[in-house]
Write the structure tokens for this entry.
Amino acid sequence: MILEREDVKLSYFVAGDGVPVTLLHGFTQSGRSWRELISRMPEGWKWIVPDLRGHGETQSPHCAPCSMAACTADLEKLWDELGVERTHLVGYSMGGRLALHVAARRPERIISLLTIGAHAGLDEDAREGRRHGDEALAERIERDGLEAFVDYWGSLPLFAGLQQRGPAYLAHVRAERLQNHVAGLACSLRGMGAGVMDPVWDELAHLPFPCTFVAGQLDHGYVASARRLAATVSNGHAEVVLRAGHAVHQERPDAFARVLANHLAAAATGAASSSSTAD
């Protein structure tokens, strides 16, 4: 389905019926990357799954911003279109950072928050170097083309854990990444990279809803971020999934489905704890 705004044609799909849960994908992915997880979840949820700006089948003019603010406005318009006043919000990596931004800036629209492999913005002394790094990546994709960039991106140690799913699954992930476009991914790097994201750590302290911050056991930097996030919010919980790296929901989908189901059930009662480890 397509939602038309002034500067974007936002592609999305809706699956199931019940309490709304919005799923935000990571960089080089699209909403399609959540279909496996949805198939493993119990009934009773309405899954709202957009292709974020710069990704998938979402289209926008070359001059349109790919930014946290623009994507937040897209989500609000989508929720309004669907008659959704409040939603559970789930985001992975780049989508996790967007979820944190939305939770900080639009808390009245959120029932609960869960992120995977995310942080709430870099410290100031790390932002400049990351901005230069993301600009270099944007120039690389523009220079070398989509296929070469996808192969480079998929070879990063960050995604080594996907190998446990076997060559057929790796080919599937690669094929989905190749459904993106050079201009969109470059725009996303320049507008939504960690270096340009406004840190929202200070804005998270008083979030009024349950929050779960997930990281794979082998994704050490993001384990630290998950624990920092859990310590920052007043109703936060860190969940470390064993034998998983950055892409927890893809590396160990059954284990993550249990984590998400538990989070949604706990959110219904407002329950939370500080930290745990999931098999």
Residues 215 and 223 are 5 Å apart (CA to CA). The mean pLDDT is 96.
